[in-house]
Amino acid sequence: MLFDKFNRIHDYLRISLTDNCNFRCTYCMPEEKIQCLPNHKLMSSGEIIEIADVFVKLGINKIRLTGGEPLLRKDFGEIFEGLSSLPVKMTITTNAFWLNRYIDLFKKTGLKSLNISIDSLDREKFFSITKRDHFETVWSNILLMIEHGFDVKLNIVLMKNVNDDEINNFILLTKDLPVHVRFIEFMPFDKNKWDRNKVISFTDVFDNIYRDFDIIKLHDEKHDTSKKFKVTGHQGTFAFITTMSQPFCVDCNRLRLTADGKIKNCLFGKDELDLLSAFREGQDIKNIITESVASKHFKMGGQFESGYLETSADDVINRSMIKIGG
Ligand code: SAM
Ligand code: SF4
Fold it and tell me: Is the CB of 117 under 6 A from ligand 2?
């Protein structure tokens, strides 16, 4: 079992399959052209499965595939099937553009739930955030996944004066659709033009939501990163992921593996250890994994000590989100 020095168990691994994407979300992808990893620097499908197996033997019981856009990998099917044969709960975060291709695979491998990013329900605004005019494809794939019985969570990165006027529309989606809407606070990463004044925190909008809807607080599990709610009579739920304003580090159980095989023990931490090179040299990577877990900071990767209201984008030392894997 992987315990850090604060006695937190680590049983959840997020694996980035690529740092490439077919969207260009302003909050994730740096504006200047970024160099994607060449194939030989990416973990191959076989390496991903073998490395994941080592993690599973150390107690990992849930794996999320992410990126970049994980469905862009031509060998996505092979990777997903291979990982699904391990004794773990599999899931994925995706922009949904290619989802319709994978319904059979997901049914065959027993995928139950997945996270889909959609930051606006308005086609033009969707375009201005993602720089791609793909709203209709994304929306129809969301409906398709619901129709096929998957448990769908929708991720919305809230940004002031960008999409904060759509909060109620997203909550209204939960009336007739059994979806779980999750508002995520805008987080700082390398070159994503983060500004603390653009963060919409849970407390900024909480009163208005209470005024407009008849709301019930739902139970949050120990490792939940969200505060969950439901409008009385609605089929779906909504939640706030308060990473910046009320971090949930105290119960953190997550580790990350970047597409180039570096283990990161925190989304915000700058520290990483090179698992892939060690694996390719035939070393036992168990020690590197335990070393990474042991060196985890208590909070926010050891950054933002004075809280996000005192933080400026220049203070952040980290990869861009597209190069980490959210
Ligand atoms: N391409 C996939 C997608 O968009 O769902 C998976 C990768 S994406 C990096 C994973 C998640 O990170 C998405 O839900 C995205 O909205 C979120 N994300 C990216 N940059 C973010 C930021 N600066 N603040 C908060 N969430 C962010
Ligand atoms: Fe691509 Fe997802 Fe980043 Fe958007 S959030 S640019 S879809 S990786």
Answer: yes
Task: Tell me how far apart the alpha carbons of residues 246 and 263 are, in angstroms, rounded to a whole number.
Answer: 25
What pLDDT is attached to residue 34? 81
Tens digits of residue pLDDT in 68-97: 999 999 999 999 999 999 999 999 999 999
Q: Which of 14, 24, 157 has the most ligand 2 atoms within 8 A of CB, as the residue to mutate?
A: 24
Torsion of CA 20, 23, 24, 25, to 10 degrees: -110
List Cβ neighbours of 274 (8 Å cut-off, separation of 6 or more): 261, 262, 288
Q: How far is the CA of 326 from the centre of ligand 1 (A)?
A: 5
| Domain extent at residue 312 | 2-324
Predicted local distance difference test score (pLDDT) of residue 31: 86
pLDDT at 93: 98
DSSP, collapsed to helix, strand or coil, labels residue 198 as helix
Q: Which of 24, 155, 194, 200 to mutate to test the pocket of ligand 1 (most atoms within 8 A of CB)?
A: 155
Cβ distance 71 to 94 under 8 Å?
yes
Q: Which residues of the chain have pLDDT under 70?
A: none
Q: In this structure, what CATH number is given to the domain that contains residue 274?
A: 3.20.20.70
Total domains, the chain = 1
